[in-house]
Amino acid sequence: MSQPTVNYDILSPVKFIVRSAMVFPDKTAVVYGDIRRTYSEFFERVNRLASALKKRGIGKGDKVAFICPNTPPMLEAHYAVPMIGAALVSINIRLSSNEVAYIINHSDSKAIFVDNEFADLVAPAMDQLEKVQTVVNICDISADTPLDGPDYEAFLAEGDPDPMEIEVDDERQVATINYTSGTTGLPKGVMYHHRGAYLNALGEQLEFSTTANSVYLWTLPMFHCNGWCFTWGITAMGATHVCLRKVVPEEIFRIVAEEGVTHLCAAPTILISMSAYATEHKLSLEKRLEIMTAGAPPAPTVIQNMEGIGANITQTYGLTEVFGPHSVCQWQPQWDGLSDDEKAQLKARQGVPYIVAQHMDVVNPATMQPVPRDGQTMGEIVMRGNNVMLGYYNDPEATETAFAGGWFHSGDLAVMHPDNYIQIMDRKKDIIISGGENISTVEVENVLYRHPDVMEVAVVPVPDPKWGEVPKAFIVPKPGSSPTAAEIIDFCKANLARFKAPKTVEFGPLLKTATGKIQKFKLREKEWQGRDRRVN
């Protein structure tokens, strides 16, 4: 634990709003529909939230969960909660009620803030929430307070608008916990520290060339890696946040035009929907729009389509465990003269480490030795440095496995090109990345095994033009039964987050090894035949 001195200061992303409120007090910080708030107003609301939490007994080391889309309260939470030394737990609004309850309990959250559209995710599990003492309703789409607690604005009114002390005495203390699904199917809590969040937030702005004149549209969920740290980075630059409740192409293009949006981040599936909408309505962008994409490698065609309407695409790569993006497909001036197709092929690579990251390699996971830089030899992507998580919350065994050999193991198989640019070739494990969301095949299989007519099952990713890849279930029915694909899919939707359910089902025998293990790789090969590589 280090204390500030004449030549040292603790790094915390909370400090960005303190500076911007001082430097840009009257500049527009947050836009949401008809709402426009300056940086001084934004800062005042953050202080009110922090103060109100403290009055409710929330303090250093406590956890505060938010189940909320990209609206101003979610942005305010990214400052107020870590400001008082607590940790923010941003929960995916697409999860099932059981999954949300598990995360709230596993994270030991003492307070939960729930947007009223998603109250039905929490209400059935209220009696299971072991440590929750404070419940707040975020009444954005209606004035209803479906849960037993005050509405958000009334809660803020309990707080003090005066600047709060930033209660961070160790820059490696936990700032946020982000839950990600692993191959076991149980979500793991990825602990972000203040130092990593501070540095990665600045790294994002360096790589994306934002300035105080930038206008950033929130198409990327803030619950994904804290919005890839843009929740803090945009504020650091004194730029403008434009919040967006629902990501719909029509709304994106309308707001881009009306608000003069200059930057946004999005998974490839959003780019696909945007380009399809633009083609259908014969739209093009009036001025260049900078787009950062990650979550699943975009197909070169997707990049070409978006750049054809006036966007500039920058691909980055990372994982929840490294604060979001860790590498960027850094553009080289000598590529300017290439054809559009050649440019798109280069832009589809995962690239080189961020300026603030630097430590990234492709290694033989058995020996931890770097693979040849030949663009052909596959190995595992490994990373280390300031923007690697502290570990998994309350899971030392998983943490030790992830950090084996002194590096964070990504689980992604890739090649290293001669120019030191990385390109993902396959997944080491069976995680499906669908529209930027991680889906555990084991989790889906475990649910399917509960179906009364299922004897054996294997779930693998299959190509999908919109989502990149989606789950497909291969099922051996129990003798005498004849389930339909619709029944299987409906069963999954009733027991999992709907996006995790298989989109298609195939019935028949499953190939196995001599020891009885289902050969899932052969199922994948069949589904991906004729493609250069998997889209994930």
Automatic annotation (TrEMBL):
Q: InterPro entries, alphabetically?
A: AMP-bd_C, AMP-bd_C_sf, AMP-binding_CS, AMP-dep_synth/lig_dom, ANL_N_sf
> What keywords does the record list, in alphabetical order?
Fatty acid metabolism, Ligase, Lipid metabolism
Q: Does the keyword Phosphoprotein apply?
A: no
Positions of the AMP-binding enzyme C-terminal domain: 443-517
Can the keyword Lipid metabolism be found in this entry's annotation?
A: yes
Do you know which Pfam families this protein is assigned to? Answer: AMP-binding, AMP-binding_C
Per the UniProt entry, what is one GO biological process?
fatty acid metabolic process
* Lineage: superkingdom: Bacteria
One example of the protein's molecular function in GO is: ligase activity
Q: Which residues form a coiled coil?
A: none
Q: Which residues form the AMP-dependent synthetase/ligase domain?
A: 19-393
Q: Which family does it belong to?
A: Belongs to the ATP-dependent AMP-binding enzyme family.
Instruction: State what protein this is by name.
Output: Acyl-CoA synthetase
